[in-house]
Design goal:
347 residues, alpha+beta, 20-stranded antiparallel beta sheet
Length: 347
């Protein structure tokens, strides 16, 4: 049967090739393939050149820069850039990053959409101290607006199990983490932001300070933040070379923390003038008496004021485990009614 079909198929193709339309179609196809191949090789050279130029720019600014190789592959549909043996350190030596491999992946027909992939192990230097990072499936994706000065449109970082181990001995971990941002305006000044973590384990020394009698479990079951942020300047390419854009406003839809029988929820809206926040927030706490203890242990509440805080909490709770407290912030100072109770950090 095959011996009969093959000659028939060959004759059909040969007869079609005699058609001027088929010959034209083949010529156009080959021409387009050649143009696309040329585009990819030009793009591949440009991507590699930009990567090397970025590292050279860091070096010119006083950074220590080392890497083994920087190559882009993926013909014909991708620009996949891989850097190996990357070793970066800022001029002060306070910040550094070492990774055996780091990848930036993009479709050749959508170069404004990039995926970053980290290895399972890497190290970060913060404050002159080295932190080893182990992770499962750590990757990020970002989309920038196509323009002469591209601004961030979306960004997402997600990781499975992640662990931090400091050279000073402390360790922290989480079962899962997700951080996402999405542009909420055409001018690049407003963004929706979201954070979600589960099974967050703080360093032992911190847990012992906050909860010396170990009344709470080792892991914080959940920490979520859902907010909208307004910046003073767009998050564009200029923001990478200058000072970070300041935060002008924060609409905190909800920050929710669940740690054992302690549940904390915070919502409200703040604006910033010269870095000093003002606005109103509402704090809702289940297990408010335990929260007061945590505040004292963390140094946020002076021990001499603990009794006052418990009296205020009891008056709001009226015998219930859950208390809801409205707070006013004026130029960084936090007020409970007519009583000042603390300060918020500068935005």
């Amino acid at each position: 049967m095959l011996a009969l079909v093959m000659p028939l198929a060959y004759n059909a193709v040969r007869n079609q090739w005699k058609s001027p339309m088929m010959r034209l179609l083949l010529i156009v196809t080959l021409a387009l393939a050649g143009l696309w191949g040329g585009y990819w090789f030009v793009g591949q050279a440009a991507v590699e050149k930009q990567g090397v130029a970025f590292l050279e720019q860091l070096s010119a600014q006083g950074w220590t820069v080392g890497y083994e190789s920087l190559e882009t592959h993926g013909f014909p549909s991708r620009f996949d850039t891989t850097v190996t043996g990357l070793d970066l350190a800022d001029p002060s030596g306070e910040f550094g990053w070492q990774t055996p491999i780091f990848q930036l992946l993009a479709l050749s027909y959508q170069p404004n959409k990039v995926i970053a992939v980290w290895p399972e192990t890497q190290s970060l230097r913060l404050g002159g101290k080295t932190i080893m990072i182990s992770s499962e499936g750590m990757r990020a994706s970002a989309t920038v607006r196509v323009s002469t000065n591209p601004a961030l449109e979306t960004a997402t970082v997600e990781v499975g199990r992640v662990g931090l181990q400091s050279e000073t001995g402390w360790a922290a971990s989480a079962d899962r983490a997700l951080v996402a941002m999405r542009s909420a305006s055409e001018d690049g000044l407003s963004y929706d932001a979201y954070l979600d973590t589960s099974a967050l384990v703080l360093p032992l020394a911190m847990r012992e300070q906050l909860d010396p009698v170990a009344a709470l479990p080792a892991a914080i079951q959940m920490l979520k933040i859902d907010a909208a942020m307004a910046f003073a300047r767009p998050l564009d390419s200029l923001a990478l070379s200058g000072a970070a854009p300041g935060l002008k406003g924060l609409d905190l839809k909800e920050m929710r923390l669940v740690w054992g029988d302690l549940v904390l929820s915070v919502s409200g809206t703040l604006t910033s003038e010269a870095g000093q926040p003002s606005g109103k927030i509402t704090v809702k706490v289940t297990g408010w008496d335990r929260m007061v203890s945590l505040g004292v242990n963390a140094g946020l509440i002076h021990p001499a004021d603990e009794k006052t805080w418990r009296s205020v909490g009891a008056s709001f709770a009226q015998g219930a485990e859950t208390v809801e407290v409205p707070l006013t912030i004026e130029k960084g100072q936090v007020w409970l009614g007519m009583f000042p109770i603390g300060y918020l950090p500068v935005f």
